[in-house]
Amino acid sequence: MDFADFDLATAAEAGTWHHFEMNGSPLYRQDDNSIGATETDKPCRVLLKGIGSDATMAILKEITRVEQAHQFRLQRSKDNEIEGLIIKLEEKSEGAMRRLILASVSDWENIVISGKDAECNAENKLKVCGPKTSFFAQTYQRVLERHDFLKDAAKN
């Protein structure tokens, strides 16, 4: 192994699995298609592209630009304009975060919606890990964790 093996872009495109947790306990699909913390051979997990992925990086740069533009606008705004600017930032940020989830989640296993296997499509991705869901924060944080996408590099 050498430093050429630490290729974040390739590793980020390939993705890494994230096992969903609730209150610190990993979640598993149960025999009755419910989801619970009782360990089975069916982990509830998503395959995530990382921060080094081109699509993911483009959206993260967009989020940064939106936040920076917001700060500049706030500095030039009048008091009665501030709330409107904040509302615009929230709308733009939520849209970008939805696109980030759609770009980052490339596959999943043992995800159940309404008692059935859920297809890994745009609508379901947002239902499971989009903004305002129970799994958004852990999905978003995992995408940003660069080191998790290089696990295999140190094993060669």
Describe the structure.
With 156 residues, this protein is an alpha+beta fold. Helices cover 45% and strands 16% of the residues. The protein is built from 5 helices and 9 strands, in the order αββββββααβββαα. It has helices spanning 8-14, 54-76, 82-104, 122-129, 136-144; strands at residues 16-19, 21-22, 25-26, 28-29, 35-36, 45-48, 105-109, 112-113, 116-117. The strands form 4 sheets. It has a 3-stranded antiparallel beta sheet. A two-stranded antiparallel sheet has the order 2-3. Strand 2 (21-22) and strand 3 (25-26) form a beta hairpin. It is globular. The relative contact order is 0.19. The model has no long low-confidence stretch (mean pLDDT 87).
CA-based shape: globular
**What would you report as the Rg, rounded to the nearest angstrom?**
18 Å
Q: How does the major sheet shape up? A: 3 strands, antiparallel
Number of helices: 5
**Poorly predicted parts:** none
